[in-house]
Design goal:
The complex is a heterodimer of chains A (about 375) and B (about 250). By secondary structure, chain A is mainly α. In chain A, strands 1-4 form a two-stranded antiparallel sheet. Chain A has helices at about 1-10, 10-15, 25-45, 55-70, 75-95, 100-120, 125-130, 145-150, 165-190, 190-200, 205-210, 215-240, 250-265, 270-285, 290-295, 300-310, 320-335, 340-375, and strands at about 135, 160, 165, 240-245. In chain A, helix 3 runs parallel beside helix 9 (about 165-190) and helix 4 packs antiparallel against helix 5 (about 75-95). By secondary structure, chain B is α/β, with parallel strands linked by helices. Chain B has two domains: about 1-80 and about 170-255, P-loop containing nucleotide triphosphate hydrolases (Rossmann fold); about 90-170, no CATH class. Chain B is built from nine helices and ten strands. Chain B has helices at about 45-50, 75-80, 100-110, 125-140, 155-165, 185-200, 210-215, 235-240, 240-245, and strands at about 5-15, 20-30, 35-40, 60-65, 70, 85, 170-175, 205, 220-225, 230-235. The longest helix of chain B has 16 residues, at about 185-200. Chain B is globular and about 55 Å long. Classes of the chains: A mainly alpha (about 375), B alpha/beta (about 250).
């Protein structure tokens, strides 16, 4: 856990060589990390595949922005409220959707999320501000802030008791929150509650015949993961106080599923790995252009350089989706346990190889000694 | 042997489409007995167990357990009242290890209904771990404690499932063909284990095709054919009954 915290907090340092050490992407890594950790509590432990978690992300964002508008620019009430609101939404959605399992559950959650998305665009425009997205305005009441100070010039920015929550400080605040929620999920995974969720995944009927009422267990897991998503939504709004309905679209739910599966379903670190891979691709690979490629292949003769650039350009820039798709296919086909399983395999092979080599060198040394003795050297 | 009825199935009718799987079934199981149910394939034996554990709701009729009507209750409610079942194909948690498989049912009476108990850490419950370990030992599974349950042999899976039921200390244990598809040695081992449990005085209903098992364990035998009980008696009486030979054994000698 300590190592994990250090690794997360030093991300700005070790991501430098990958060109991913600027605050915007770092924030995305940790915030979507929260989202994926929460998603993994539901999907990884119970096996229920929800297609609607983006709705909670959106609800969290809207709630946070409203909190900035009405109450205070401090992110604490915003985040707490966004978790509560998404929790309420999760109870409603889970109560209905958990009546079914398997594909029907997925479809119900998808329908619910799409309903939220469409409502946000149409009927609920007074709350969501439709296509423009919900934004801060100078005329917002901000009741709590007004108690302490007069409205200043221009738009205020989001703070945590005076610390601005954009840029690097935003990353560190989000990172600390992610470490805390990661610790909570670790506890859930190792608790008897987590064990029972795994048992429900393995054989739900058996659980019933053993005397377990499985519904409340599933609903609790669903609400916890919904609140994680709400927290992530709140954090997104905290680092950039703007909420749009596109955050609720099903593609956003699909993205978190991709992240979880790519990294490794049901593992603790897998989803985080998935987040980093996908967000890295989205932000870095998509930005690579022809010029970058030419300079990358500059050491080759011109004709080869041009050919390589032509091939590679399919996979970068606009084509980053293709790279990601190929990677995803490879992972699902060959590593059902995700990238994390791949890393573990490599580690095992590597240690086995080292052990082998040590043995070989020692036996070689022995035979050398023997032959040496025979020849009387 | 007590004369109190633990399980009383009265006039149960269950139809699937036009098929009467259970046709006015009446069955009384007395406390402390081992009650075997035999009958040809498709006679409704497994359907009867499904009705008893709440997997199926009967069309008409009632199931009374321990003096309470349990007809139409949810499976988990029935289980909480003290009925456990061993299935024909082992129903275990394949992804979990053996200790976990037995720990979970041991926890059912504490937090089957979702409470804050459910979130508490299980490593602190030494008494539950001890109970689980004891049953695992009885089933001779101790040396595989941390093996994945799904990777075990079929015989071991059955014993594991039996352990999962026994750790709950049920008042009534339902066994659906506990020796089906087992090698001779495994069958004998299972009989030994069942005899040991029999000595503890737990009431059992056992569905079985293997007449050796039936006649070495059962106190009473009911013969089920086409959804009704056609004969009932001690193993000796059933062995000699002409109706049974006709319906079930096709006149062949046992």
């Amino acid at each position: 856990m300590a190592i994990f915290s250090v690794v997360v907090l030093t991300m700005p340092l070790w991501l430098q060589p990958f060109g991913a050490a600027y605050p915007d992407i770092l924030q995305k890594f940790v915030i979507f990390g929260v989202f994926a950790i929460g998603y993994n509590i539901l999907f990884g432990l119970t096996g229920y595949l929800s297609f609607g978690h983006a709705a909670f992300l959106g609800v969290g964002s809207y709630t946070a922005v409203w909190s900035f508008k009405l109450l205070s620019m401090n992110i604490v009430p915003a985040i707490i409220l966004s978790m509560i609101m998404s929790g309420i939404f999760a109870i409603a959605m889970g109560y209905v959707a958990l009546r079914r399992s398997g594909i029907y559950f997925s479809i119900l959650t998808l329908a619910f999320a799409q309903m939220c998305y469409n409502l946000a665009y149409s009927v609920l425009t007074p709350i969501t501000n439709g296509e423009t997205g919900l934004q801060l305005a100078k005329s917002d009441p901000r009741v709590i802030d007004r108690l302490f100070s007069e409205a200043g010039e221009g738009l205020p920015s989001t703070t945590l008791f005076g610390i601005e929550t954009s840029g690097y400080s935003g990353f560190y605040i989000s990172a600390v929150i992610m470490i805390i929620v990661f610790y909570i999920s670790l506890r859930i995974f190792n608790s008897s509650f987590g064990l029972k969720l795994k048992a429900i995944k393995a054989n739900q009927n058996r659980m019933r015949y053993l005397g377990f009422n499985t519904k409340p267990y599933l609903l609790t897991a669903f609400v916890i993961s919904g609140m994680y998503a709400g927290l992530a939504g709140g954090l997104l709004a905290a680092t950039d106080p703007l909420a749009g309905a596109e955050r609720m679209q099903w593609t956003a739910s699909g993205e978190v599923i991709l992240m979880t599966i790519l990294g490794g379903v049901g593992t603790l670190f897998g989803p985080l790995l998935g987040v980093i891979i996908i967000k890295y691709f989205e932000n870095i690979f998509s930005a690579v252009n022809q010029l970058d490629l030419h300079s990358f292949y500059a050491i080759f003769p011109t004709w080869l350089e041009n050919a390589l650039v032509a091939i590679s350009s399919l996979f970068v820039g606009e084509g980053w989706h293709m790279t990601l798709g190929l990677l995803f296919m490879l992972v699902v086909a060959f590593l059902p346990g995700g990238v994390l399983e791949g890393l573990q395999l490599i580690y095992k092979k590597f240690t086995a190889y080292l052990a082998n080599r040590n043995k070989n060198t020692s036996t070689q040394a022995e035979t050398k000694q023997e032959t040496g003795a025979n020849h009387g050297e | 042997m007590g004369s109190k009825a633990v399980l009383k199935v009265t006039n149960v009718l269950k139809t699937f489409g036009g098929l009467k799987a259970l046709n006015n079934l009446n069955l009384t199981v007395e406390e402390g007995t081992v009650h075997a149910i035999i009958g040809p394939n498709g006679a409704g034996k497994s359907t009867m167990l499904n009705v008893c554990i709440g997997q199926l709701t009967p069309d008409t009729g009632s199931v009374v357990f321990d003096g309470n009507n349990i007809t139409g209750l949810e499976p988990h409610e029935i289980s909480q009242r003290g009925i456990s079942r061993v299935f024909q194909t082992p129903q275990i948690f394949e992804e979990l290890d053996i200790l976990q498989n037995v720990m979970i049912p041991a926890l059912a009476h504490l937090d089957g209904q979702f409470t804050f108990n459910a979130i508490k850490d299980l490593n602190h419950r030494d008494d539950i771990k001890r109970a689980a370990m004891q049953v695992i030992e009885e089933m001779n599974l101790t040396d595989q404690l941390h093996d994945r349950a799904g990777a075990m042999s079929r015989g071991n899976k059955r014993r594991l499932e039996l352990a999962m039921c026994l750790v709950q200390k049920p008042k009534l244990l339902l066994l659906d063909e506990p020796t089906a598809g087992m090698a001779r040695a495994d069958t004998n081992q299972t009989i030994e284990i069942l005899k040991k449990i029999k000595a503890s005085g737990m009431t059992k209903v056992i569905i079985e095709h293997d007449m050796n098992v039936v006649f070495s364990l059962a106190d009473r035998v009911s013969v089920l054919a086409q959804g009704t009980i056609i004969a009932e008696g001690t193993p000796q009486e059933i062995r000699e009954s002409e109706i049974v030979k006709e319906a079930y054994l096709g006149g062949a000698k046992i």
